[in-house]
Amino acid sequence: MSIAIIPARGGSKRIPRKNLKPFCGVPILNYSIECAAKTEAFSHVIVSSDDAVILGLAREKGCVALPRPASLADDFTGTIPVIRHAILWAQSQGFDFEHVACIYATAPLLRVTDLLAGLDAVKGDGRRFSFSATTFDYPIYRGLVRDEQGVRMIFPENFNRRSQDLPEALHDAAQFYWGTAAAWLADDLLFSKYSAPVLIPRYRVQDIDTEEDWCRAELIYRILKETGDL
Q: Which of 66, 69, 132, 220 lies 20 to 30 Å (CA to CA) from residue 90?
């Protein structure tokens, strides 16, 4: 069996109350909860939060509401300690599971098929993690940085190389991670030779950190719903 853990902290500096903010008229957290439920892959969906309103919403949606200690609810705590805390709690309650999905609370573009593909991927021989990923829209090996004199190439050796001859680069799509419970607890690297990416097309990926990101994500969501691609 598997469990899902949705980290949903109450505080957010750039978008206040981000995990509860209405996205196309619905609290954005609802999308992750409902996607997890539709997979029918989880014995429990756990929402980890320091916020009473978020925990109340989680209960209304049929989730396990797990209060998060203040030490794991500041601006500097990463995802892995929060997932580890929830796994240890679930084990203490006698939950039976081998695989654990971390689903971000702000992933309204997540599809059930992608989430299930992540489960299949992490079950592969020798796999410890799988994660949502997408390609960069421009070759990072021809990237530039500013300096006091103007700009310079990060990899100047690629100046005369065609973009199609450079390796394809991926980045985290910030929708979900799957891992074995043992890998999460061992603090294994999320991105390593033991990890499998689940590729998602760029038009279905939008990290949401700013108001501009939010507006763009809503536009994408509406178009995908109208075209039946979500």
A: 132
